[in-house]
Amino acid sequence: MYFTFTGINVRGFIYCAIIIMAAITPQPALATFCGDGEPDSGEQCDDGNLAAGDGCSATCTVEAGFVCTLAIGIPLTPSACVTDSDADGVGDDVDNCTLVANPNQRDTDGDGHGNICDPDLTNDCVVNFLDVAALQTVFFTSDADADFEGDGFVNAVDMGVMRQFLFAPPGPSAFSSCNQPG
Q1: Structural domain spans, the chain
Q2: 104 closest CA partner among 96, 18, 112, 19
Q3: Do residues 30 and 23 make contact, with C-beta atoms less than 8 angstroms apart?
Q4: 154: Cβ–Cβ under 8 A, 6 or more apart, which residues?
Q5: Dihedral of CA 83/87/93/97: which sign?
């Protein structure tokens, strides 16, 4: 049953008024929780599940050996976690030196290997006596390519880095063909 008041359907008017009031009335925020796939303040990550071992723990903290993206306030954007073998804060999928920490990703010769794991001065994918000879010619200089640890000088520390890689390829790196077998 409904009434018509001067040509206006009262039941329809009341229904429209209720809809309008519902639209303008502030709604309480939905509860957020760890595992909902939306990182919230206080969470280091939230990958949308409570499984351990995937980079983001059941308590929404980053697990050791991983680095995760964090998009607070962007709806439906779960954290993506990737392995970080050297714990330098750079995921292995984009790290130019995956087994030796180098958070600055310094690669002065642009070959895809970070300097700290690239004593291959001849860029032939193996550290050998040709590289030792090349290092000797720039010893006690500021040659950026031979300054493996980045202190501004080529010295005994750099020779020690080279010694660790002797007869081995540089890296590994996410960006180098030297990592590939064959």
Answers
A1: 106-174
A2: 96
A3: no
A4: 135, 138, 139, 140, 141, 142, 143, 146, 147
A5: negative
Q: What is the pLDDT of residues 79-107, one digit of tens each?
A: 889 999 999 999 999 999 999 999 999 99
Cis amide bond preceding 103, omega within 30: no
Segment 41-45 long-range contacts (CB within 8 Å, at least 24 positions apart): 41/72, 43/70, 44/68, 44/70, 45/69, 45/70, 45/79, 45/81
Q: Tell me the per-residue pLDDT of 1-51, one tens digit each, with 9 for 90 and over.
A: 554 545 555 555 555 445 555 555 555 555 678 888 888 888 888 888 888
Question: Do the beta carbons of residue 128 and residue 167 sit within 8 Å?
Answer: yes
Annotation: CATH topology of 106-174: Type 1 dockerin domain (1.10.1330)
1 versus 58: the higher-pLDDT residue is 58
What backbone torsions phi and psi does residue 68 show, to the nearest 5 degrees?
Answer: -130, 150
- Which contiguous run of DSSP H or E holds residue 13? helix 10-24
Instruction: For residues 50 and 59, give the distance between their C-alpha atoms in angstroms, rounded to a whole number.
Output: 8
Label residue 182 by pLDDT band (50, 70, 90).
Answer: very low
